[in-house]
Fold:
Amino acid sequence: MNSRQRRGVVLLLLSALCAVGALAGVLAVIHDAESKAGPETTAYRVKDDVPAYRDLKGAEFERISMPRRWLPATAVTDLADVRGKIAVTPLRKGSLLQSDMIVARPALAPGEQEIAIMIDAATGVAGKIRPGATVNIYATFDAKEQGTKPVSKVLVSGARVIDVGKLTPIDRERDTTGGGRRAGEAVPITFALDTRDAQRVAYAESFATHVRLALVAPGGDGTAGSGDRTYTLDSDK
Structure:
């Protein structure tokens, strides 16, 4: 083997070593990337904006795959987790669905029933009533309805809210400012009440001049004393 052949063999070996080194480098980069990303798992993303306080549906979310190590601990990985749940805040399109975004819809206790009434947006606790909240329900009756003097009554103490609907235009049949019909907006709110309290609320919705809600502080029951359930201006001394 002459010198030229020996140089060719050496160059060939060097080329082979370089190729092996490059391949090893590529494999090392791939391995490093895989070790950083890790195996993938299933998660769910919001397809379109979802309003708060409404029952969630599986069709509102799309399945995606992402590395397990990058997935938050609160991420929802099974759509069965949204059954019977509502969103506690508006869900934005493209957001990763997480368990702290949703809560179980308040359920009825034994002996309770659902009753929904329209609450005037101007006289209710605008924007602060949420499912699970506790409120006192007040009704005011004018002198014509009472036969004597205008009166305000605490109809229900500690009523539990289980659903809040959307702001809805309404056409009031009675206008206390002087006849005729007038337009307005109200929110359908569903309460969990026993039979007696449900009767009180149904009566007030039909005959009261106004029905108002007072939000009870967390941890309080809002119970009104026997002497505080009825109020007239003459009794305020």
Observations:
- The helical segments are 3-37, 143-146, 195-207.
- The chain has three helices and eleven strands.
